[in-house]
């Protein structure tokens, strides 16, 4: 469709071919964008390399967002290769699986801080670096979930982290708006990915959404990818600071 022809973007958070970031990367590549991907650790390198090849994407490096040197290295690689970027996608989150079950009140300080660091601060850290490369304006996008707005079973500390992430989207939107850079989030409905498999009773949550969402289905990574395309392209030039639900409409009933 050529919507992103001539555009270049960094997409962080592809773990495998079921990742939401992969759905977004494919949609962007189909729309004519040039893409850079990162992976986290050697275990994921094997999975991400063939995916990068499939899209003709550049691998910008091994990036653990708790290690600012690795984040800086990725942005240095991109600056050396492209000089500038037009969009950034952050699809990264983490919490100890043991605490995505049971009661929120039992969250430990260690896991609270780690969840906030990886799932919230990392977006601000990459936005800070991406801003410098968005010399012709740009679009930044992160992924959130309805558990930020309402209590969802077992989502616990991730719900608190996503609430903070959504607030970050608004603050960042103000900070960078003057430079023609937009910052938005997609609140995706539940999708069976590696990260989601850590959430207690996830199959039940999928079924619940399927029965109750207005569209009577769960969403696919392709559907999230297509909505991301709108937020990353000029079609949404008047949109920033927004949390856009791509959840088959669940948020109007849930
Ligand atoms: O139902 C779902 N799957 C939803 C996911 C509904 C709504 C939102 N989301 C969000 C997630 O919270 C996350 O922010 O979408 C984003 C992408 O998640 P995903 O596609 O569901 O999951 P996955 O394919 O596992 O990708 C997340 C990746 C990690 O995978 P693992 O499985 O290892 O947690 O985030 C990356 C990693 O590749 N990641 C990191 N990357 C760099 N540094 C780090 C880290 N420290 N930790 C996790």
Can you describe this structure?
Pfam families: adh_short_C2. This is Enoyl-[acyl-carrier-protein] reductase [NADH]. It catalyses: a 2,3-saturated acyl-[ACP] + NAD(+) = a (2E)-enoyl-[ACP] + NADH + H(+). Belongs to the short-chain dehydrogenases/reductases (SDR) family. FabI subfamily. Pathway: Lipid metabolism; fatty acid biosynthesis. The protein is α/β, with parallel strands linked by helices and 254 residues long. It has one domain: NAD(P)-binding Rossmann-like Domain (Rossmann fold). It is built from seven helices and seven strands. Strands 3-2-1-4-5-6-7 form a seven-stranded parallel β-sheet, sandwiched between helices. α1 packs across α7, α3 packs parallel to α4 and α4 packs parallel to α5. The radius of gyration is 17 Å and the shape is globular. The mean pLDDT is 97. Bound molecules: ligand 0WD. Ligand 0WD binds next to α1 and β5.
Low-confidence stretches: none
* CATH class identity: Alpha Beta
CATH fold label: Rossmann fold
Radius of gyration: 17 Å
Largest sheet: 7 strands, parallel
Order of helices and strands: EHEHEHEHEHEHHE
Give the fraction of residues assigned to helices.
40-55%
What binds here, in terms of ligands, is:
ligand 0WD
Q: What order do the strands of the largest sheet run in, or round the barrel if closed?
A: 3-2-1-4-5-6-7
Keywords: Fatty acid biosynthesis, Fatty acid metabolism, Lipid biosynthesis, Lipid metabolism, NAD, Oxidoreductase
EC number: 1.3.1.9
Active site: 145, 155
GO molecular function: enoyl-[acyl-carrier-protein] reductase (NADH) activity
